[in-house]
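are you around this afternoon, could really use another pair of eyes. what follows is a protein written twice so to speak, once as letters and once as structure tokens for the fold. i want to understand how the tokens follow from the sequence so walk me through it. anything you notice is useful, everything is just below.
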Amino acid sequence: MARFPRAAARRYGIGLMALALTVSACSPGEAEPQAAAGGGVAVSITPEAGASEVAPNTPVRVSAEGGTITDVRVDQAVAEEVEGDDPGLYGMTGTLAEDGAVWVSDWNLRPGAEVTVTAVAEGPDGTAAEAVAEFTTLAAEPGRGLDLASNFPNSGQTVGVGMPLTVNFTQPVTNKAQVENSMEVTSEHPTRGSWRWLGDTTAVFRPEEYWEPYQTVTVDMNLAGVEASEGVYGLRDYRVEFEVGRELIATMHVPDHEMVITVDGEHERTLPVSNGAATTHFNTTTSGVHVLMSHKETEEMDSSTTAIPDDLPGYNTVVSYAVRTTNSGEYVHEASYNPNIGTANTSNGCTNLRMEDALWFFENTLMGDVLETTGTDRQVEWDNGWSYFQLGFDEWLAESATGEPQLTDGNGTPGPVHGEDR
């Protein structure tokens, strides 16, 4: 069960009285009110019963006076005509304060839902009290709901230890902290990590160090009801679950004309290579931490799609077994036409391999594997491809909207998902 840290929940446990239904037994409709003294229990719920068009990012709060909360049930009925969501009944998890007197919903409510909150509390003498509040939430405006456009990796994929999590949204996000806190990353081997925004529609999560190998990572995107920007609410929730495979690290010191590959810390093989000729900035292989991106059996290398200087000859060729390492056009690929593999650096910046070695690299590497390169005077930019580990973790964290790391232990996100004025 996903929860906020208890400290965050306690911050919401003040001033909750909005609807007070006080009963002596579990019969919300007919029981007479009773004072908390003498064994009576008072239960309150917000939003109040009968409320309509409640902002979806309003927290559900339950408090008990003179007793402790024993059960809270939140049922959200979504009609078929509600844009962007599947019809059905949805629940809600919440966090109970340490004294048992306050319960706060973990996430936001679904837009356009009929909500029923049922809360039960118990007094010291065993007396039970139940309160029920029914209300409706505001529907998302047609065409303005926040949804998930794409994500990398996808559920079911196995990736390397350097794999970032990339989420692309259908709408610009201005309330970035609330959206960040709605996306909980959980790993079997807990670590620290953080989201960072690349513009208003893309968020990227990376761990402090590479992922531990051989584990499952789950991303719960509790987007339903989050207010991405004024009046723009998340339409639904998503879960992505992927596997981190073995730890494959490839290293190159460019002047050595070779790539050394280790798997789980053990030497796997050494491949002869030819890297960039380095006669200009353009054809210099970048140094730094690269994370392997796409794998294509054939790829057209066309200089007209790059920022090639006027004084260099253009090229257009199709290569085999191309593994992308940057957005600026660097690949590890087959280049049987290059006679200098293993002896000299003569490429246009890519890493050239012989056919047999290129095939092995293509078949035995994963999206998210790591290529660490040294020995050139051109550093890969941190946002060129997936080279996010070029930044120290403190630098990465500094651009998080929350400013706090997220622990991937399943115990919650750094802060609240509800509106600041809720």
In short: The chain has a mean pLDDT of 89. Residues 66 and 138 are 33 Å apart (CA to CA).
